[in-house]
Amino acid sequence: MTELAALGGDTIARLWLWWSALALGAKVGIGGGLGVVGLVLFWLVTGKLARRARKGRQRVLVVVACVSVVLTLLLGAWAYLLPEPERVSFVLTDQIVRVGAALFGTISILVVMVLSLPWALDRLERQGFVNFVAARHVRADKSGFLTVISILSIAGVFISSLALCAVVSIMGGFGADLKNKILGNNAHISIDGMGAEVSGNGTPPAGDDGERAAGADAPHAPLGNLPWDDLLDKVRLVPGVMAATPVVTGEAMASSQSNTAGVLIRGIEPTSIGSVIDLVKNIEVGKFDYLSEPGLISEMNEDEPIWIGRGGHRYLKGPRGREGVDTTKKGAKPGAKPTTELDPEVLDALRREEDELPAVVLGRELAKTLHVYVGDEITLVSPVGDLGPMGVLPRARKFRVAAVFYSGMYEYDSSHAYMTLPVAQAFLDRPGTISQIEVKVEREDRSTLIRDRLAETLADQGLRIRDWKEMNKGLFSALELEKIVTFIILSIAIVVGSFCIICTLLLMVTEKSKEIAILKATGASDVGILKVFMTEGLIIGGIGTVLGVVTGLVLCLGLLWFGVRLDPDVYYVDRLPINVDPIDYLVVAACSLGITIAATIYPAVAASRLRPVEGIRYE
User: Fold this and answer.
1) How confident is the model at residue 8 (pLDDT cuts 50, 70, 90)?
2) Of 362, 524, 561, 597, which has the fewest CB atoms closer than 10 Å, so is most exposed?
């Protein structure tokens, strides 16, 4: 399937390039010819189908189906050729095209199902006495009021089932999207020292700059009873573990030239963090390699983006220069533009000063709050300071922004700052220590099993081992409860629609009392009459259920396929999340049919108790 999709994409791309290379006159001629051929084919097919259809509503439905199919194909092809928008851009016309393709596709499927109802009832009539009589009752001419009630019964079940399917899919989509974002920014399993701060056996002496040695120069402090690097190797050997990485965390205050914000510092190992969380994939501007090699930031290309603004506008680095430095040559004419030529020694000194600064990766919202781009400098202030003449002084250090990431969750994008593990250990005054080990497993749904294996392997270490289900238990329990309550509330709408079925069958019992009496007089039993009216109610409810569930499925698949973009200035998700779960649709169909069957019991019992004499007494 992937190869076919790739082949189709390459074919369309080649056709598009061929079309773009044509002259304007050729484009007009070919486009006009294809349009005329399409209109002729559409007129011929629609006319033939309309002539074969019965007079009245059926011909109108045939025309509506043909028009919907044509619009679906046209808008679908248009939506396929639309460019993939940036996460921060929103084009209203593109969304109208995408939603229109999904809606017209849904309408065409719905009309086709309505047109196929006579065929389905014909096949049902051949399945025995009960089905024959029930189908005939549904298709027979009724009084005007009874006809309206029957249509309302089907429409009530149809709309209720459609709404229930759509809401369950969208709520499931939000839950799945939230789960993916949480697992993309957090490990499947976290191993820590039960919240206690872990320190090494020895404290290395402070350097000249007041910072303690960290990383390779400091001993690896134990996490539990083992040095954390040995513990890390032991964790990676557990079956089911894909990757593991050390992390040190702490809090600090970030400040720029225009604003300040609180941040959560996460010291990471650049070589292994990408195999545990999606930080590398979520980089929006800048490069993750700048984190471990800050000197590359000064060598960025002029056309490399340093920020993506509103509407997808890209801010480029541009030519190298220093703001506020007058570099106009002596003797230049008045009004001449300043040049970017500086003394080579000055440039080397500036570059050395910038290259010596460690790098940091910020979330998009945090960078927006601080008003900084890639390559800008920020100052981090740690609550852990050095002892001076005036007491404990907070520790401050400058960093350069290496990249900006977008995770899709505001809580992470507005607070997280990533730096290398040695730099974070030095800044937070935790030489050789880590806060936790983050683990990724092969299948997140089996994280509990892997957690138990880790607990058994590390039983003598005194560590706390938690998986993502335990750490986010309250959130996902609330989402599941919300989904269940919404399902129950919308199911009440199906119950309301079933009342129309009760009224329809009761009125039909009154109207068809003579026919019921004749059937009983010719040998039909009470159980047979009971089955006839229950089958009749089941047909009415089944039509509404099938129409609603299938229409909801097609609509959600269309929206999922074409994609519905949301305005990033209003919502923090770039598209409407939809999760099409077959089990949810089967549950909706089963509940709808169960409610409609329950609604047929009383009218069917009333019809079965009708005596033949009472039915034909006044005839």
Assistant:
1) very low
2) 561
Tally the C-alpha atoms within 13 A of residue 549's C-alpha that lie toward its C-beta: 20
Which ranges in 242-360 belong to alpha helices (H)? 270-273, 289-292, 344-355
**pLDDT-wise least confident of 10-24, 91-105, 242-256, 400-414:** 10-24
Identity (one letter) of the amino acid at 425? Q
CB 394 within 8 A of CB 382: yes
pLDDT tens string 115-128: 888 888 888 888 88
Q: How far is CA 36 from the centre of its chain?
A: 41
Q: How far is CA 492 from the centre of its chain?
A: 28
Helices 526-562/129-139 angle, 10° precision: 60
The answer to whether 402 and 361 are in contact (CB under 8 A) is yes
Given a contact cutoff of 8 angstroms between Cβ atoms, the answer to whether 474 and 218 are in contact is: no
* pLDDT at residue 47, as a whole number: 58
User: What percent helix, strand, coil does the chain show, rounded to 5?
Assistant: 60, 15, 25
Strand stretches in 415-561, DSSP E: 416-420, 436-441, 464-467
Domain ranges of the chain: 1-44, 116-182+477-616, 195-312+343-462
Q: What is the DSSP letter of 357?
A: S
Specify whether the CB–CB gap between 547 and 575 falls below 8 A. Answer: no
What residues contact residue 383 under an 8 Å CB cut-off, 6+ apart?
A: 251, 252, 394
Phi, psi angle pair for 393, to nearest 5°: -105, 130
Cα–Cα distance for residue pair 507/145, rounded to 1 Å? 9
pLDDT tens digits, 214-241? 333 444 455 655 678 888 888 899 898 9
Q: How far apart are CA 80 and CA 15, in angstroms?
A: 14
Residue with tokens 């027979």: 140
Q: Which two tokens stand for residue 174?
A: 């939000």
Contacts (Cβ under 8 Å, ≥6 apart) of 24: none
d(C-alpha 67, C-alpha 75), whole Å: 12
Token pair recorded at residue 219? 């001993």
Task: Return d(Cα 303, Cα 322) in angstroms, integer.
Answer: 17
Distance between CA atoms of 618 and 514, rounded to whole angstroms? 9
Identify which of 479, 482, 477, 483 has the alpha carbon closest to the alpha carbon of residue 588: 483
Structure tokens at 473: 């238990």
Alpha-helix residue ranges (DSSP H) falling in 22-91 = 24-52, 57-81
What is the residue-wise DSSP string for 307-372? EE-GGGPEEE--S---TT---PPTTPPTTPPPP----HHHHHHHHHHHHTSPEEEEEHHHHHHHT-
Residue 405 has pLDDT above 90, yes or no: yes
Average pLDDT along the chain: 77
517: pLDDT strictly greater than 90? no
- 553 band by pLDDT with thresholds 50, 70 and 90: very high
Q: Are 432 and 315 in contact (CB under 8 A)?
A: no
Average pLDDT, stretch 166-188?
88
Residue 461: which of 225, 198, 220 has the closest Cα? Answer: 225
> Residue 297: its pLDDT value, please?
84
